[in-house]
């Protein structure tokens, strides 16, 4: 804020402030109320925009504060004071959204994470981002409790790009939200349409000038006595400029004291400038004046930071003096800890440094850097180092993060955000920075940038010693392996990772684990699940030896993926939950990619167990954390959720979800090889549900050529068996087209191939589809044989392959299950079948009949056939005791005492033929 009649910053007093960013200061002492202007502003409450534009010092911010305090009871207000740093649209929108989240918790959480992941070298679709946010905001806003969003000092952030963003924001502003903007310069917005529709209220300089009555009230409120002609002259020369009068009143205090209480007006136009530069600053005590110059370079400060900058211990006292004497100090929080100077005041201080200063701004920034670093505020520390012109200090701060910590957390957001503010030349200045940022870029799937940076390692060869040489070469090999895996170059990835493992020293355990994980993933791609299992075991043992919970969790995640491919879903779930348990002690507010992956995979496995509600919850939580970490694993969540939505008939929502995932990958600059095939395969499933077999066929042919042709591409990391699942989808296509012979041939071949490689889950999917195909084509006996094979393969806990039989052939499936020995898998499938209902025999019957379970119905059917308890036990493979228990429950539910009565009652109710 630029007006001397108020302070800068930020939020309705009832809204919690966050580090001062949304704290709206109170009206300054002696403020002259301006009800006439507040009434005019109130006329704009039914519109979209209230624009208050005038030169500095005309009371724009004071008027906005007064108006916020006079708002009708149902209104809420959010105050955002801007600075030059907000000229970057991403930062501006991030602050706006953070403020709105205080009024609407959870609003745009994903959108905020996406905004924070933006990169300087990548274009960002701000309008598309805003469109989604405004749609979400529209659902939260209550027209009965509207919100006034105040953007104070917009001129400080104003620029062409931000103007366009705000223009879009205004054009699509949802009902219940009103924008109030104060600015020295009129924004470059097209406002004719808003003005014609009476959606704009605008106040300018002539509106904000103090009337003679208001100016006289201001002078009187301060107890100033002066001759009438001098008062009139002062008011005429001030032309209603609020800041001029206020500054004059400050200067007039001492004049009145010297002249017996009578104030005299100063010279001419130079009064304000002279006062700021000479009267205010130079009349402060020497120590206060030094304090002002030494701290003016900081955008915000507290007493402890000022002490560090000045190498002193009296900053708290000086700040108290400045507050007491109203020397243009603006509070940034309600606790009175953080402050800044009024913009005009700090500009003057920076422009006219005191000659007696012992150190310049660079030294102050460097000391501030050390203080922020000691407080663990790494972002601010790096910024201060850069402003001090010390990129080497910034580099050392970045290097304080170890490769092992980065690889364990796999949260590259922080590093990539720092990268935006660091010179590109700095990234290649040391081997450590090269390796650190290469890993960050590789994990962010920015493979070209990672490879280019890795190439700079050659400048540091030969290394000073043989050990350092081997270490550097091995780290380069590990990085090349990661990059090659991302590009689908399997052989290169295997070679680089294997060579890295032979050269990496023990202390580089993080990179060793990444190589083991990559090799295990490639083993799954090549159908060697036993080798993958051995590599998983080696990785887990290494993680346990170093005692890093994040790496242990990552090893559990890799093991779960191999177990899932083998069809051992219950064991995979156990691995996932062991991994999450290892992370339980980590700070909940921090985001970890490995926790996101485990959460996503838990949702995926729950879906395989046909627990859709729990699956959706875990998938949504995993997606949120993965987005915050910029982790591509969220593709798993989007694809599984789209499949679930398609299964529920919500096809439009499913396609929209996939479009959002694809848009996100594009924004993150992720190569298509990571995501395009996975998304396209899911779309093929949805197209088949829509009956668009021609579209599905065209894309399945292209996918098959890419991943199963003469020179097949390697499957992406998150779907290592992609080629086989394409085959499975092709069988579904052939079934939909009526080519049952081709589908049967393909499914049998897939089942055999899966058995050879140990891929039980894939084989089970093929077997279950084959059973459904045979059943629908009238081959019931063959279908029964295939089902029995599938049930044997499903002992690991998989249920989803049976979904078609559960939904389309429930009676046949129940009949087959009831003829088989009892097992947890059979019971789980029986529980998913529609429960047999006992219909009322007639309206006159008043007996309340409870539902019989599937197992009880099977026992009842055998009782009706005249079977003894022992024969029932042998037939259903259950104990004699269990048979007797079921018989008692049947009698109780049917309201009878004997077996013969139970059979008769069941027949009368239509339960038995």
Number of strands: 7
What is the share of helical residues?
55-70%
Largest sheet: 5 strands, parallel
The order of strands across the largest sheet is 2-3-4-1-5
Helix count equals 47
**Proportion of beta-strand residues:** under 5%
Radius of gyration using CA atoms only: 36 Å
Low-confidence stretches: 1-19, 256-270, 840-849
Oligomer: single chain
Secondary-structure-based class equals mainly alpha
Give average pLDDT, whole number: 83
Distance between the termini: 85 Å
Principal-axis shape:
globular
Describe this protein's structure.
By secondary structure, the chain is mainly alpha-helical. Helix content is 62%, strand content 4%. Helix 33 runs antiparallel to helix 34. The radius of gyration is 36 Å and the shape is globular. The N terminus is likely disordered.
Furnish the topology, listing elements before pairings:
Layout: H1 35-42, E1 49-53, H2 60-69, E2 76-81, H3 89-103, H4 109-116, H5 126-140, E3 147-152, H6 160-171, E4 177-183, H7 192-196, E5 200-203, H8 205-208, H9 212-221, H10 228-238, H11 242-258, H12 271-280, H13 286-295, H14 303-310, H15 315-324, E6 329-331, E7 339-341, H16 343-351, H17 361-374, H18 378-387, H19 391-399, H20 403-409, H21 413-421, H22 424-427, H23 431-443, H24 447-454, H25 466-486, H26 490-503, H27 509-525, H28 529-546, H29 549-565, H30 569-582, H31 593-608, H32 612-629, H33 634-647, H34 651-667, H35 672-690, H36 693-708, H37 722-736, H38 740-757, H39 760-776, H40 780-793, H41 803-808, H42 810-818, H43 824-832, H44 854-864, H45 869-876, H46 880-894, H47 899-908
Parallel strand pairs: 1-4, 1-5, 2-3, 3-4
Antiparallel strand pairs: 6-7
Helix pairs in contact: 3-4, 4-32, 11-12, 14-17, 17-18, 18-19, 20-27, 23-24, 23-25, 24-25, 25-26, 25-27, 26-27, 27-28, 27-29, 28-29, 29-30, 29-31, 30-31, 31-32, 31-33, 32-33, 33-34, 33-35, 34-35, 35-36, 35-37, 36-37, 37-38, 37-39, 38-39, 39-40, 44-46, 44-47, 45-46, 46-47
